[in-house]
Design brief:
Length: 626
């Protein structure tokens, strides 16, 4: 069976039959329906019809036969089929998107190239996108628009905290799941395409694109671009068309610096507060607009203000002037004053009632008003408190736990859960991050450890050599902070502790009496000891596995009782040179650590430790050459 994708309402240039992208997606659908299971995309995904078309590609229904679940696959343009730089840029962007975990961001499950063309696999949202919803229903209810706006703003807050800008937000990029919840798609992918193709078609009218970038020194989209796009998106859901300066006819491009027609011209039931939030989002690139997605979210979450009731007194005054026109000036001042006293008293009572209703009563009954618990997970404590306060709620930290990827104070869990109906003034209990555990890279080479840390978002600020008998040279033996320590966040960076290597580890030993030395002296275990074969003077000589540069010798003593000892270090080079490097003189006792460091000597083949004065029979718990 061959599926013929439906034509897109946008007309020529967007349909599957027009242009390289459409024809390729049609051919790919045909291939997957006509070929055997072995020809599935990456051997696991079968395609089953088109969900929609956009400026970046075609989205198809698909099924993951490996995990037995429905998915959606977006097939991108193949204009860069032989462009290795583009392929790397696309995969890097897809990798970043896949790390986003948020209830209002469509999860990226897989990505790759097929016939050189990029694709991504994401969770399937059965409710279609906002463009389809608007086309089928027209203007959406105001409560639904506010809910969608809050969900998108929440997703942007999370993504912007991760340093990721969408850059192409529009109705087609916001999907709805079966419960009507918004899920934003294509984070970061538009920018990857733009680096290879040039500018991506504007996600919002050109005037707003220019306006949102009017104060930027670079045309690259930033957070304000996303905020402006949210404003345009919600405006269109409310009004049924994109923002413009005209209240009649189709919208026209808006020039930078000009405000659009207020949406209340088209939606009389829209509150001034909601309208103000939409207009400030549209002007995110100017001084009058929001500067962050968090500001937008707080404005949308704020409860609607109670309208003032100042009209009754004014109306009563106007009735007074009209009611007695014939008698004005015909009676004495006393009679007029007497007539005004009861009316003035009535107005005073009305005014007092208005004050009570608008000021006192709401405060008295505010605890009985209901609200929904906002989503606070992934916020810092300060931000979480601000969001909760906007909903008339408070927060309290009831627990903490270490994490691998959340800075200290980040909210990990909340109770009650988001969406729960609560009385205003209620408390939300939070579990927060106690700090971040650095990744454990012990046992890796320096390059492998550095790469693993960078992939996890950490930086390496230094490398320090450490003499470690159990690890070869160049192997990570620890870090500061260590894997069991907690850091405030991953911005601090780590110092890697790298083994300089014990060149004597398990090497052959010779003693001054001509016999072999005990392997316990070079086994990496300071609890074992090996005798040098008698009292001083005597020596033990270590053959290195291969000629190496030597910078020092670390010794761990084995003595029956404390005393003054004298030890000398000698080295032999491959050229036959025999050099005395250092002499230690001083009091020592059992299990003392002696560090004998000197100017590095290259091409050393053997090291001798000679004891000219000791206490009893000479022995060593450990010999480390590095």
């Amino acid at each position: 069976m061959v599926i013929t994708p439906r034509k897109d309402p946008k007309g020529p240039g967007f349909g599957p039959g027009s242009g390289a992208l459409g024809s390729w997606s049609s051919r790919l659908l045909t291939l997957h329906h006509n070929q055997s299971t072995a020809r599935r995309l990456k051997g696991r995904y079968s395609l089953d019809g088109v969900l929609g078309h956009g400026t970046l590609g075609t989205t198809c229904r698909a099924f993951d036969h490996k995990l037995r679940r429905p998915v959606a696959i977006k097939l991108f343009s193949g204009r860069h089929i032989h462009d290795g730089v583009f392929a790397a840029s696309f995969m890097a962007a897809a990798s970043v998107s896949a790390r986003l975990r948020h209830p209002h961001i469509a999860a990226v499950l897989d990505a790759g190239l097929v016939d050189g063309r990029p694709f991504i696999v994401m969770e399937r949202a059965e409710g279609g996108n906002l463009r389809h919803l608007l086309a089928s229903r027209g203007q959406l209810p105001i409560d639904q628009c506010r809910r969608i706006a809050l969900q998108i703003a929440d997703a942007l807050c999370y993504a912007h905290r991760q340093g990721l800008v969408h850059g192409n937000l529009k109705l087609e990029n916001v999907l709805l799941d079966g419960q009507g919840r918004a899920k934003v798609t294509d984070f970061g992918l538009a920018r990857a395409m733009a680096r290879a193709d040039g500018p991506v078609p504007a996600s919002i009218p050109q005037g707003y694109a220019a306006l949102s970038l009017s104060e930027q020194t670079s045309p690259e989209p930033d957070e304000r671009t996303d905020i402006c796009a949210v404003g345009a998106l919600i405006y269109e859901l409310l009004v049924g068309r994109p923002p413009s300066t005209s209240s009649k006819g189709p919208s026209s491009p808006l020039k930078a610096g000009r405000k659009p027609s207020p949406p209340r011209l088209f939606r009389r039931d829209l509150s001034p507060q909601f309208e103000r939030s939409v207009m400030r989002a549209l002007l995110a690139g100017s001084g009058d607009g929001f500067s962050s997605a968090r500001e937008l979210q707080l404005a949308l979450a704020a409860p609607e203000l109670t309208p003032t009731l100042a009209a009754p007194p004014a109306q009563a005054t106007r009735r007074l002037d009209v009611r007695h026109p014939a008698h004005r000036g015909s009676r004495g001042f006393g009679h007029s004053f007497a007539a005004l006293v009861p009316l003035a008293a009535t107005l005073a009572i009305v005014a007092a009632a208005v004050v009570a209703l608008t000021g006192l009563f709401p405060r008295l009954f505010s605890s009985f008003q209901m609200t929904e618990a906002p989503r606070l997970v992934d916020y810092g404590l300060t931000e979480a408190g601000s969001v909760a306060d906007a909903y008339g709620l408070s927060i309290r930290v009831t627990g903490s736990q270490p994490t691998d990827d959340r800075p200290k104070g980040t909210v990990l869990a909340q109770h009650p859960t988001p969406g729960t109906r609560l009385r205003r003034g209620s408390e939300i209990k939070l579990t927060v991050s106690a700090g971040m555990r650095p990744p454990n890279v012990v046992g890796k080479s320096v390059d492998e450890g550095r790469a693993a840390l960078i992939r996890a978002g950490w930086s390496v600020i230094g490398v320090e050599p450490r003499a470690d008998s159990n690890a070869p040279a160049g192997i990570v033996v620890g870090s500061r902070p260590g894997p069991e320590e907690l850091a405030e966040d991953d911005k601090r960076g780590l110092t890697l502790l790298v083994s300089s290597g014990n060149l004597a580890y398990r090497g052959p030993l010779r003693l001054s009496n001509g016999g072999p030395g005990g392997a316990e002296m070079v086994d990496g275990d300071p609890t074992t000891l090996g005798s040098v074969g008698g009292p001083a003077p005597c020596w033990v000589e270590v053959d290195l596995a291969q000629p190496s540069t030597v910078s020092g010798v670390d010794l761990v003593t084995a003595q029956e009782r404390p005393g003054v000892t004298i030890h000398e270090v000698w080295v032999w080079t491959t050229s036959g040179e025999f050099r005395g490097m250092h002499t230690f003189v001083g009091p020592t006792e059992d299990n003392s650590s002696l560090a004998i460091h000197f100017v590095p000597v290259a091409n050393v083949r053997a090291v001798r430790i000679a004891t000219t004065q000791g206490v009893g029979d000479v022995a060593w718990r450990e010999i480390r050459v590095w």
